[in-house]
Specification:
It is a single chain. The protein has one domain. It starts with 10 loop residues before the first strand and ends in a 7-residue tail after the last strand. A two-stranded parallel ribbon has the order 1-2. It is 27% helix and 19% strand. It has 1 helix and 2 strands. With 52 residues, it is of the alpha+beta class.
């Protein structure tokens, strides 16, 4: 039977909607941050609590 050791994964979540859209400057910084993070999983979602 195989024995599996512990491991970690880098997981990122990105809210594409924001509270009123995301300004282009901030969008560019977020993309750069996600690139530097080098995540194995990136969850993209659109949540705007003001529209619910």
């Amino acid at each position: 039977m195989p024995i599996f050791g512990y491991t970690t994964a880098k997981i990122a979540a990105w809210n594409l909607a924001g509270y009123g859209g995301i300004p282009e400057e901030r969008l560019n910084r977020q993309v750069e941050g996600l690139t530097l993070l080098d995540a194995e999983v990136i969850a993209l979602m659109e949540i705007n609590p003001l529209s619910e």
